[in-house]
Amino acid sequence: MILFPIATSYSPRSAIWTTLLATGLLPILHGADTVIVDGSNPAALDSNPGTEAAPLKTIAKAVALVAPGQRVIIKGGIYRESVIITTSGTAEQPITIMSATGERATISGADVISGWKRCTKAELPNHPDPAKITYVELDWKPINIYADGDRLPLRIASWPTVSNGERIASNSKAPDNHHHIEGGSPRTLIDSQHLTQPAGFWDGGRVVIHRFWLSDGKMVSDQFLNCDVIGYDPAKHELTLSELSSKNLSLDPTVKQIIPDSRPIQGVDKEAGLLMSDWYQISNLPNLIDEPGKFAVVGSGKKYRVYVWAPDGVDLERQLVEGSRRGHGLRGQGVSHVSFIGLDVTGTTQRPLSFDHGEHNTIRFCCSYNNRHGPFMGEAFGLYLSEQKHSKITNCISVLNGCGINVFHSSDC
């Protein structure tokens, strides 16, 4: 696997892609060899033939119709869809998916969120200042929230929190934004020092447990575990947890346990069992939203409520607010001789632009930005090649993603 670093600053509205298209570096041929997509055209329908006069509305429909030797030409605009192409080209008749000349097509994994309302004390009885919080009800769950256009996503509300340069007192082995676990069981967590809130305060929270495995007082391995709060007893300072992601795990610090991973650790007999040091953080509760730019999402099924303390200077009703909900932007699955050219992808949570299992594929003059996994997931790759041969990524930008470029289990790429 090859990883490339990401850029840290970029204006997605720069003229670089328009210049490349307009100067002829990305030539466009119209006619029988093209399928036209124009989502902004009132006459566009997915039942159309995909011509200039009768364009298709979605990219997904275009890639379902495209044949070897054809190009899918996408007019400028935002396309809120997830696209997978499974049709291959050939060396003599490749398939190309690209933006139209002088225009910029953006595939977005996010949808617009509107209809915000101001909270009251009745809605957030455990929040110290509910008037600062706005909320909206949705029938889908946003993974990340983006406010005011192409900015970084808002931060998930969490506790304990570190702000204004302060650091939580801890020893050298502890993370700065976690509390220590005194004890517990496979389904409970006890912290008499910090779990002092009233009944119901922690119900529905998301818990991340950071476990350190110790040998002779030194950390030799660590592990992250995720679970939900399904009960809270303030008299016992005890959280009841959903099933932890690691089997046979106990939060009793006096119990020696075997490190579950297979990595060898020099000088450590993992099979003998080691003592642990467990730390935790609770997040995704509206009660924990303590400053501008934070959010929480509660609910299940098709009934969710999103709570936000708007960033400074942002009016959620007047400015663009989006929530990411789709994992993939444009993905080539099991294809060969396919090119993605001059496209932008944003707001996805897994793989914005990618090819899986194929050969002789190209990602060229594309931009991947603001694509991030959710708070409890791994990193999102801006540009991704997996199980590829003789494929390439060239003249692209990957910025403000979890990672920049990933070339995985591939050869001659």
Topology of this structure?
Layout: E1 2-4, H1 16-22, E2 34-37, H2 59-65, E3 71-74, E4 77-79, E5 83-85, E6 95-99, E7 105-108, E8 110-112, E9 117-118, E10 134-138, E11 145-147, E12 155-156, E13 158-159, E14 179-180, E15 183-185, E16 188-190, E17 206-215, E18 218-233, E19 238-241, E20 275-283, E21 294-300, E22 303-309, E23 321-324, E24 328-333, E25 338-341, E26 343-346, E27 351-359, E28 362-364, E29 367-369, E30 381-389, E31 392-394, E32 397-399, E33 403-408
Parallel strand pairs: 2-3, 3-6, 4-7, 5-24, 6-25, 7-26, 12-21, 24-27, 25-28, 26-29, 27-30, 28-31, 29-32, 30-33
Antiparallel strand pairs: 1-33, 8-23, 9-10, 10-22, 11-23, 13-20, 14-20, 15-16, 16-19, 17-18, 17-20, 18-19, 21-22
* Inertia-based shape: globular
- How many individual helices? 2
Amino-to-carboxy terminus distance: 11 Å
Can you count the beta strands?
33
Integer average pLDDT: 82
Give the proportion of residues in helices. Answer: under 10%
Largest sheet: 8 strands, antiparallel
pLDDT < 50 runs, ≥5 residues = 1-29, 163-174, 262-268
Please report which band the strand proportion falls in: under 5%, 5-15%, 15-25%, 25-35%, 35-45% or over 45%: 35-45%
* Category by helix and strand content: mainly beta
Radius of gyration: 25 Å
